[in-house]
Specification:
Elements (H helix, E strand, L loop, with lengths): L3 H6 L1 E8 L5 E8 L2 E8 L2 E8 L2 E3 L9 E11 L2 E3 L7 E3 L2 E10 L6 E9 L2 E8 L7 E7 L10 E4 L13 E4 L7 E2 L2 E4 L5 E7 L7 E5 L5 E5 L8 E4 L2 E2 L2 E7 L2 H4 L4 H4 L14 E6 L1 H4 L15 H14 L3 E4 L10 H4 L14 H10 L3 E7 L4 H17 L4 E5 L5 E3 L2 E3 L4 H16 L3 E4 L15 E4 L16 H4 L30 H10 L4 E3 L4 H7 L1 H9 L4 E10 L3 E8 L5 E7 L4 E6 L7 E9 L12 E8 L4 E6 L4 E9 L1
Parallel strand pairs: 23-24, 23-31, 24-25, 25-26, 26-29, 29-30
Antiparallel strand pairs: 1-2, 2-3, 3-4, 5-12, 6-9, 7-8, 9-10, 10-11, 11-21, 11-22, 12-20, 13-14, 13-16, 15-18, 16-17, 17-22, 18-19, 27-28, 32-33, 33-34, 34-39, 35-38, 36-37, 36-39
Helix pairs in contact: 5-7, 5-12, 8-9, 11-13
The chain binds 1-deoxynojirimycin (NOJ).
The site of 1-deoxynojirimycin has 7 residues, from loops.
Length: 654
């Protein structure tokens, strides 16, 4: 029998977009005026039909009652060369379809939904052009779903918490994700695929967190502003890319570079940007030897700075960070940040003299701006503060936003809200103008914008080693490569070798501290301990920290499981040398590494491994250093102790 209902409920548009290798399929559907998408790998469902659209303040929702005006397809094949990072070349190959949509009835607003389907993921974004009576809008909410099976497993950190992204990762079934969690959100589907939901090119918008919505579908929860809306935007506006990374295994996921492919190339010359290895007037404050604030034990004095510059020269490290150099650290600095002055040094610190001494000796100073989240105070001084450093030939600044919220325009806002995102961007762009590179602590998460702004050399954005002394377990650094590091490099402050310090006891073995220089990439890589620890106690171990580069040509993920272990090989960008490293959780582990990725040459291998009796608690210093010659037909059997790891340099002999 003919049913009238069929006439009205028929599918109007159904389209498949395949990845270049044909294995990933994104399905777009326009059904009864509503849009949705789903994602498949062969005959396996990864994302079930998922809703799309927006709630707009004072207007009808955008994304309903739609018809297709036109669609445009594009096949893109490109190899991108990145100026620095984990891989020199990444591919940007995809099939794109843009769906140009309009409402069937007045006001007939229009927007575009653009999909890109890659061999390793699917991305899409909304693009809204300016139109009559629709040129300035307030987004109340975005309704983008990532409707995975509820039995999918998630590795998550909670959103909207006082310590921003600095939490331990937890494994939670999606059906339990009632509260919002940050992205990248790494998932394992019941059919065994590994996904990570994230976003790329986050500009002028609240950052995406995700949670289960009222339909029990995983869905965007855009970080709100203090006025409870999500974003105020002028049209044209495009959202960040909504990205689903796809891999067959956890280890394969770790080299997904789609966030960079989805960002634009730089608009100007950034050849002045150079990744940096640095030491710092820093850990001495954490272990209570020095203070940030002026006084008897003040760290950032002219004298200490000169001593550290001399140490950097002896150690062969090119940079020096100096924290606590400016006015504003007195008393409880976490509460008094409103008084910070970014152009006024303390009376015992002569910045021009220190900067001159550093420059004469070829050492790059890393300046420091701790805003404590008082963004209004910082923005008032921003131009002067960057000019002050630039005038003193300081080309790197570490910025910080400690505190649970930011004070922006007199209001308390989330770091990862639209106004927070815009503030961070302002600093990146101003720094670029002054030829300054940034390492942002308490940052906005990475969304690949360093492709466009290569002067953004690093970020923190997860628990780093300053949480040692009780709040870091050995598994933490075994989660990072599969979670946080999918959003780009991290300043983890590696290389703390004074493991049994009574103020800050470190829960790793010594070899594992060396491993971090390879397992946790950062364009600004800190050798975080005090120089005397390297020079007097561990000169042999320090050789690895000296030798390991901060810029790689190629990264090969070798083995690992989320939160358990991770083994990776990386080739130096400036030589034929390889660096291999691994980290493990509380369990000891043997790994077998086949060296067949090497070329035909002979390599001198320096191995820094846990000794048989090493243990992160009982015997953290147990390290075996050995040397041998290897080639591509060899393999290595490496032991990692509980809480341990290893680091290997393979130097190609000519
Ligand atoms: C937190 C940062 O992560 C840390 O590196 C810095 O030393 C302090 N804030 C003080 O700025």
């Amino acid at each position: 029998m003919f049913k009238w209902a069929n006439l009205f409920s028929r599918n109007e548009i159904e389209r498949d977009i395949f990845s270049p290798n044909g294995r990933i399929r994104c399905h777009f559907s326009l059904n009864n005026g509503n849009i949705s998408y789903s994602v498949y790998r062969g005959d396996q469902t990864l994302i079930r039909p998922s809703r799309l659209g927006f709630l707009i303040c004072g207007e009808d929702p955008l994304g309903q009652n739609l018809k297709l005006i036109r669609e445009q397809k594009h096949r893109h094949e490109e190899t991108i060369e990145l100026p620095w990072g984990e891989d020199r070349f990444i591919s940007n190959n995809y099939n794109e379809t843009a769906f140009y949509l309009t409402e069937k009835k007045q006001p007939s607003r229009i927007f575009t939904l653009r999909f890109r389907v890659f061999d390793s993921g699917v991305a899409f974004r909304y693009e809204i052009p300016p139109q009559p009576k629709f040129s300035q809008i307030t987004i109340q909410d975005e309704i983008t779903e990532f409707n995975v099976d509820l039995n999918t497993v998630a590795w998550q950190i909670p959103a909207y918490q006082p310590d921003r992204y600095e939490y331990n990762y937890e494994k939670t079934p999606v059906y339990d994700l009632e509260k919002s969690v940050h992205t990248p959100l790494t998932l394992r589907t019941p059919n065994g695929f590994y996904l990570s939901i994230h976003e790329a090119a986050l500009y002028n918008y609240g950052s995406m967190t995700v949670k289960l919505n009222e339909r029990r579908a995983l869905s965007t929860d855009i970080t709100p502003l203090s006025d409870h809306t999500k974003a105020h935007v002028l049209l044209p506006f495009q959202t960040p890319w909504r990205l689903i990374m796809i891999a067959n295994s956890a280890i394969e996921l770790t080299t997904n570079r789609l966030i960079y492919a989805l960002n634009d190339p730089p608009a100007e010359d950034f050849s002045w940007v150079k990744p940096l290895k640095f030491i710092g007037i820093w850990w001495a404050m954490y272990v209570g030897e020095w203070t940030w604030a002026p006084g008897e034990r003040h760290g950032a004095t002219t004298g200490h700075a000169h001593e550290y510059i001399d140490a950097a020269i002896r150690l062969g490290v090119s940079g020096l960070l100096i924290e606590g150099w400016n006015e504003g650290w007195e008393g409880n600095w976490l509460e008094n940040g409103i008084h910070n002055k970014f152009t006024v040094a303390t009376s015992d610190f002569d910045l021009p003299a220190v900067a001159r001494y550093a420059e004469q000796n070829g050492i790059e100073l890393v300046g420091h701006h701790e805003t404590v989240g008082f963004v209004d105070n910082y923005e008032e001084q921003l131009e002067d503060a960057y000019n002050y450093y630039a005038a003193n030939h300081v080309h790197y600044i570490k910025t910080g936003y400690a505190g649970s919220m930011m004070l922006i325009h007199g209001r308390r806002e989330y770091h990862h809200s639209q106004v927070g995102v815009n503030h961070y961007q302002k600093t990146v762009e101003l720094a670029a103008k002054k030829h300054i590179c940034l390492d942002i602590h308490e940052p906005i998460k990475g969304t690949g914008i360093e492709r466009t702004w290569p002067n953004l050399l690093s970020r923190e954005g997860a628990r780093g080693q300053e949480y040692e002394g009780g709040a870091l377990s050995p598994s933490h650094a075994c989660y990072l490569p599969y979670t946080r590091l999918l959003s780009g490099g991290m300043d983890y402050t590696s290389g703390i070798l004074d493991l049994t310090n009574s103020v800050k006891r470190i829960s790793t073995t010594l070899a594992r501290q060396l491993a971090y220089f390879v397992t946790i990439y950062s364009g600004m890589q800190m050798a975080a301990d005090r120089p005397f620890i390297y020079e007097e106690r561990f000169p042999k171990e320090f050789n690895f920290i000296h030798d390991v580069p901060v810029n790689f040509a190629k990264t090969l993920p070798l083995a690992g499981e989320i939160g358990e272990y991770y083994v990776v090989a990386r080739q130096d960008r400036d030589s034929a040398d390889w660096f291999i490293a691994g980290v493990t959780d509380e369990s000891s582990r043997h790994v077998h590494i086949n060296l067949d990725f090497l070329d035909n040459g002979v390599y001198a291998a320096d191995l820094y491994c846990d000794s048989d009796d090493a243990h992160y608690r009982e015997n953290p210093f147990g390290t075996d250093i050995s040397h041998r010659k290897v080639g591509r037909s060899d393999s290595l059997d490496i032991y990692m102790a509980p809480g341990g790891g290893f680091a290997i340099r393979l130097q190609r002999l000519t």
